[in-house]
Amino acid sequence: MVRYFLNHWSALVPILAAVVLAVSWGxxxxxxxxxxxxxALMGAVLAAVQHAEVVAHRVGEPLGALVLAVxxxxxxxxLIVTLMISTGDKAAALARDTVFAAIMITCNGIVxxxxxxxxxxxxxxxxxPEGTGAALATVATLATLSLVLPTFTTSExxxxxxxxxxxxxxxxxxxxxxVFVMVQTVRHPxxxxxxxxxxxxxxxxxxxxxxxxxxEPPTKRxxxxxxxxxxxxxxxxxxxxxxxxxxxxxxxEAAGLPASAIGVVIALLVLLPETLAxxxxxxxxxxxxxxxxxLGSAMASIGLTIPAIAIASIWLEGPLMLGxxxxxxxxxxxxxxxxxxxxxxGRATLLQGCVHLVLFSxxxxxxxxx
Length: 370
What we know:
Layout: H1 2-7, H2 9-24, H3 31-59, H4 63-87, H5 94-122, E1 125-126, H6 129-148, H7 163-187, H8 203-208, H9 220-254, H10 261-283, H11 287-303, H12 305-312, H13 326-343, E2 347-348, H14 350-368
Antiparallel strand pairs: 1-2
Helix pairs in contact: 2-3, 2-9, 3-4, 3-9, 3-10, 4-9, 4-10, 4-11, 4-12, 5-10, 5-11, 5-13, 5-14, 6-7, 6-11, 6-13, 7-11, 7-12, 10-11, 13-14
Keywords: Membrane, Transmembrane, Transmembrane helix
Transmembrane segments: 7-25, 31-51, 63-86, 98-120, 132-152, 164-183, 222-241, 261-279, 291-316, 322-343, 350-368
Subcellular location: Membrane
């Protein structure tokens, strides 16, 4: 029974999550039942990403690169909107906190782990500075336009955009993300392949989605099955987040943590699968693909989440605070500078990996103890 579940977990978990959602919807589950809700929520997130990878492997590039990003963004936006609806004005800064946490996790946590693992295996982690530098520049631009400028604009009081400014930020985010995807998958795909990699065929795609390099794409039937299970998993994630939101908020308050810690929890939950995938890929001496995954996730978190939240804000009540505070801006600026110095040589040692991980640790510490 256990072996059967382990072999078919990605198909069983979305169904189990839907059952748990149906049973718990509209109720206040007891503590023991809430543990089951959280387990189902975590399992649904992992299953959703797994099925998105299968669909992406089937459709190939450039659509394949978008499938996983869109699936993860739907999860992130669903969790943000669900908590914003349930908490009202208290969650005005939730989108900002979650997106910023995603940037810190990807650009420092995942990048640091990838470089560390790659350097441990080979002494030096080697990657392509052209593609990685372009990705980092795009992330830095998106983060500045969406999260830094609202602190300094004067059309609205506080760290908020006016309606026209928010629309501009949303459109530019989509444009930059779309151009980057085109460059990565159509115009200059070689800049994003491992330095030691073979021809620019499906090897980079297979490594990105953690398939064997010479594996055949899944059948059309398997892809449609994964698409259906992906939709079930996404419904489970959003619904279970609604059920679990009161417990998350009460747990944060009981622990004496600031409200911004909720955004960190959401980002950690959403980016857990990407973190595991990046480390697995780095252990296979494909650090470039790990960096693509990390920076691509950061880019999608800004370039797709901000427009989605901008649209959702039409119906959501209360302000939408996007501007970062002084401490957060210092961490963001340091991340961009250190990231640029890491990328330029095209190679990194244990030191660079540890520097990024220390920055990530500083972010987590300051999120808990501001």
